[in-house]
Amino acid sequence: MNIRNIRNDHSVVVPATVEKTHIRWRTGRNIGAATLLAAAVLLLSFSAVNALMGGQGLMWSVSQSEPLKLVVCWENPDAADPLAGETDQTPGWQRREWVRLALKHSWERESRIIFTGWQQCQDEANPAPPPHTLGPRRPGAADENIKIHITSSGGGQNPAHGSWGDYQQSGITLNLHCGSQDCMESLAIHEFGHALGLYHEEERGDWPNDIPGCPPQTHPTTPPWWPIPTELRWGAPDRNSVMAYCSGGPTALSPGDVAAIQHAYERRLPGTLLSLPGSLCLSDHADAANGENAFGWECDEANDDQEWRYDVAKSALYIQWPADPSNTRRCLDVNANNGSDVQIWDCLDGSNQQWQFQRTMVRGYGGLCLTRPAAGAGALTMQPCTGADSQLWRVEPSDLLADAVRLRADSDNLCLALDGGSGSDALAKPCSLDHHVYLPLVDGAANVTQASAASMDDKASASAGASPWWMDFYLSPGGSIRVPSLTSDSLCLDVQDVWDSEFTAGQGGPVAGQRVQFFKCYDAQLNQKWSLSGRLVSDNKCLALSGDVTANGAPAEVTSCSSAAQQNWDYHW
Q1: How far apart are CA 238 and CA 198, in angstroms?
Q2: Can you list the domains of the chain with their CATH numbers?
């Protein structure tokens, strides 16, 4: 069984002379060619810790009231424009936008981080001096936090990792002429990982030297590069990490990266409804008049205007204004016409305020997805999210319990099921109405005791001490999928892995194929946190952002359901 705890000890003292420089080079690119040569990587690094390993004292601190908000600027934005004679003539604005969106699809999607701003750096003749202090520390406001300098050679460089380099001029150097969109995106994700306080996998003190295709350990041993901030390790060494040189320049986080960044900077808040193309949160003003349009906005968590609760019994999405003493619900409202605006309205419980999660993936530990066997029924495992039929589910209200749901296969009569006690496999089994043991249950919202429906055979089994099995679960706030229970020992859907002490000592972590089970609930543990990723449907129309779906203010609408990216949402309950 797996348990995880976020560690926030930043009490390490490091000599003030410690300086950190990181350079990432990519060579062997045939610029403009359809086939890219494999990149030969030259490692030149004097840094000390990395992704899946963070520098204790270099990590930014996380606030309960707002996300980690880092203002980014371009020192020389015009340097992204194509060079004379350059085969790739992609305009500079597009290259810069690739960088911005790459970060939204990676670090921002998975954690409470916002990279904002993205204008030309201001007043560079009189910059604020970098603090060069060890945390915990929130971003300062005297200058832009991360300054990008565009180059046309080499790869990427980061001279001051994490909060140590706040305001640092040329705090990140990026080659936006390296030959392809993938190259630019992978460089950006890697270098911004350093800006978050993360270091190379190869610099871990426990990095093995026998991984085929990977460089040996480069853990510094000579002062003043060592001692440095104590290593914070999350899981085992990961050759697939965006922070590993032997990973091949990925443009997406590995499962280990996802788990690591969520430990360091937390998951998205409960109620977040995130549009995938631009990682914008569905927003509306909870104190607005009826009829105000909903829109996409960066996930700033302000005024609870982005925290959408899902009322299972009424299939309603609603927000509440914190200053309203009566806690009035305001519901997401629409008419059925194609292209209609989505608005905020008083909750009237009509069909135009009902929403269903359909063709949705259940994402969990490390961003992997809950997957049924190819043949249908059987034990569930965690696999990379592909949108295959075996990963698609519908969220349906329970016929037996108020506020409970069933997770039903989107294209088959199979439901998520528990058959046994703690440690039992999570199963996909034929959906049934009468296979619930006759035991007292709890209404998740009202905390009211009630009895479940059951067949006489089930009652006899229960009295004989047989293990119960369930197909109805609560989506408990914080991301757990919980078995109804009157006791404090409720069971939760759980991805089997090592304990927290082992994980933070550099062992375990999410990998494809992990077993899924039901285990005693631990509310703080990432291996028991889940979210939905897919369509949100009202009257056979899909919720989407229209216009520029990656810009603040993009209006929300409903439209005919399709495979369009703007119809895909992450929902955290």
Answers
A1: 13
A2: 22-265 (3.40.390.10), 273-355+533-571 (2.80.10.50), 365-529 (2.80.10.50)
